Every structure is written in C-alpha cells, then in structure tokens.
Amino acid sequence: MNDIVFPPAALEPLTRERARAARPVTAGILVSGRGSNMEALLRAVAAGCLSAHVAVVVSDNPEAPALGKARRYGVETVVADRRAYPDRTAQEGAVASALMVRGVELVLLAGYMRLLRGPLLAAYPGRILNIHPALLPAFPGLHAQRQALDHGAKVAGCTVHFVDAGTDMGPIVLQAAVPVLEDDTEETLAARILVAEHRLYPAAVQLYAEGRLVLEGRRVRILPPPRDRSSRPD
Predict the structure, then answer these.
(1) Where is this site: Raises pKa of active site His (predicted)?
(2) Is 82 annotated as a binding residue?
(3) Is residue 229 part of a domain?
(4) Which of 38, 100, 212, 229 could form a disulfide with 21 if both were Cys (CB 3.0 to 4.6 A apart)?
(5) How many domains does the chain have?
(6) pLDDT at 228
C-alpha cells in the first residue's frame, strides 16, 4: 500500500534538471548506526538528482556501519566518539567544529542517537533537519513504530522536521502517512515506513536547497517553485 505525502510539494519529482537549477547546499550528515537514510541521500546526490554536496559524515559511534557506506560513496568521515569526551557539550562542540571547518551549511540527522542541546544548535539555528518514523507530534522519541502499534493507531508514517532543543519537537517540514495493517509487527511497519523515509528526506533537502522553506514560528511555509528554477537565494 502506498504512502500519502503532505504537502503535495514533496511529490515534485527529483530530476537532474531540477537539481542543476539550484545551487548545491553543502551538507553534513550525522549518524550513529546503519545509515539507511544517509545512503538514500547519498544515492540521490550521486544520481545528480539532489542539489547537495555532502562534505562529511560524522558519527558518535566508531563502529557505525554507516561510516563504511559513506566512504564507499567517496565521502569523508569523522568520528566524535562520545566516550572520548568529558561531557555532552564537549562532544557536540567537536562535531560542530568538524562541520564548520568543512563549510557545512545544512546539518542532516540520519539516525543520530544523541539529543542536541548546545553548540550545534547555536552554530546552525534553523539549519538542522531530522527524520523521525512517526507522524509528529504523535510518538516522539524511541520505538515510534512500537508506540503506534501499542496505541492502536490506524495510520503511522514519518516526519522531516527542523531540530530544536526539544525531542522531535521542531517545526514540521514534510510528512508521509503509511497505513497500519491488521497483521503488522513492529518490524513490518518499520520496514514500510522506511521506504517512505527514503523518499521524503531527499525531497525535503531539495526544497531547502531551492530556498523554498520559510520558518514562521513553529510553522514551515513551502514556497511555490520558481518559474525559471533559478538558484537558491543567498
């Protein structure tokens, strides 16, 4: 069964022509695990269908499978092992420094399992995106798919949102709804939601690169596409 995406702007095809029309945004991706959403983004970039240059992939976990995947795409990787720093602020400061020295403009969380509290939020206000496997504000935090099943939800899904100091509480950019089937387990539901995630995250990044995401308090307004697909305003 197909997912349903909101708003319809996310359904605009990611094409090479569209990607060429916008100035590529320099992005950094933060990961902690396998990095399937990271890989979806890197595939779109490699195909020439996403206006982005991924300058670095940073992980707090030196054993993260995502690091090897990133290197296979020719992307530089950096490890900021949480165990090597005295506290969260020091570790996050190291991550922020790794991003800034590489000219990163947009930070993309892709299964990064640490809450952001200080240096990164200060360095990149309104420039950090995350994807969460639920229709926020419902089911924030860990095990969102299990939460949906435990609550008897008939519809689940995923959300791309800007990151703030809350847990999955930032302004919502895009959402995709996925039906919950009668025989769903946490694993089967998660697998179907993941398919939607891999479509939704590149779509949100492309909208950002095109300068079409406008933060207005807790709301995100999506501007219509430019008639001439001109470059993202500086």
Answers:
(1) 168
(2) yes
(3) no
(4) 229
(5) 1
(6) 58
Q: Is 2 marked as binding a ligand?
A: no
* pLDDT tens by residue, 142-151: 999 999 999 9
Residue 178 contacts residue 158 (beta carbons within 8 Å): yes
CATH of the domain at 174: 3.40.50.170
Give 178's strand partners. Answer: 156
Count CA atoms closer than 13 A to 24's CA, side-chain side.
19
SS3 48: coil
Length of the chain: 234
234 within domain boundaries = no
36 annotated to a ligand binding site = yes
Domain extent, residue 28, equals 4-222
Please name which of 24, 207, 204, 16 lies closest in space to residue 103, comparing C-alpha atoms: 24
Query: Does 176 reside within a domain?
Result: yes
Nearest Cα to Cα of residue 5 among 212, 204, 216: 204
d(Cα 174, Cα 38) in Å, to the nearest integer?
17
Q: Which residue has the tokens 């919502």?
A: 172
DSSP 204: H
Q: What are phi and psi of 232, to 5 degrees?
A: -60, 130
Domain membership flag for residue 230: no
Parts of the chain with a pLDDT under 50: 1, 230-231, 233-234
100 carries a ligand binding annotation: no
Q: Which two tokens stand for residue 48?
A: 């020439």
